[in-house]
Amino acid sequence: MISSLKKACLPFLLALPVLAMVGATAPAPAPADVLVAAGPAPAKKIEVWELMQTSELIGPIRCLMCPSGVRLNAEKMGIVWIFKAPKWDAYLYNIESKAFCSFTYDQWKERGFFMPAARGKNGERLDRFKGMKVKKTGKSLDIAGCKSYAVTINLPTGSKYGDIWLASGITAPPQFSEVIGKMVQIPIEKGGTPLRAKILQRSGHAAMVLDTLGASKKKVSASLFDPLKGFRRVKDEMALLLDNGDSESSSLFADPPPARKRRKEH
Q1: Contact between residue 72 and residue 60 where contact means Cβ atoms under 8 Å apart
Q2: How far, in Å, CA of 80 to CA of 179, rounded?
Q3: pTM of the shown model
């Protein structure tokens, strides 16, 4: 009985080495059948214009801008500005103290940055640029490899306030011109991208409040326009500069508190 079983299994046992060789040379499973752990998604890159600018008022400024965002790094001040579509609210960060403050678009467009509000006799807020006239001069100039055209600014009295050179070939959101205008006190909100600006002072000196040293296109991570993490909120830009750790610290730029009524002495 046992010898008969051995004879029956012998062909199968002889075939095992052949079956093993066939299995070793069988094609590997298709890639779709193999489960592979997914790696981290690559950072999204976007194309921006990078402007290396400088100002007698602020110092070196590195500007990154695209249609959906603006990021400014004022190195001397240690402040980073971030503005992002669609709201274009302003976020200011003190890189050293890890403090930040923010303003809505309507707020910063009206009051600017680091400047006390100009007020009339009755305490009403005044527009510094109201009545100023901006006119093209017909002059052109190459600044940092970009063709620019000049406009002159005159005060309501007719006297000259300053000159601005604008580049039409640099794609930038209109908010960039608004931001730069508020930072360096020039009344420009429309037209090209501001590359250079001079303001005549009472002494007769033409202060270079803005100049462009370099301009180029590059690709950067889209996350550069996201709000920064790990910063604590303070009241406003003066608290951001002086930063004593008090989120309700006083401000030189805030509206003055109402006068206290004096108590009657008995």
Answers
A1: no
A2: 13
A3: 0.68
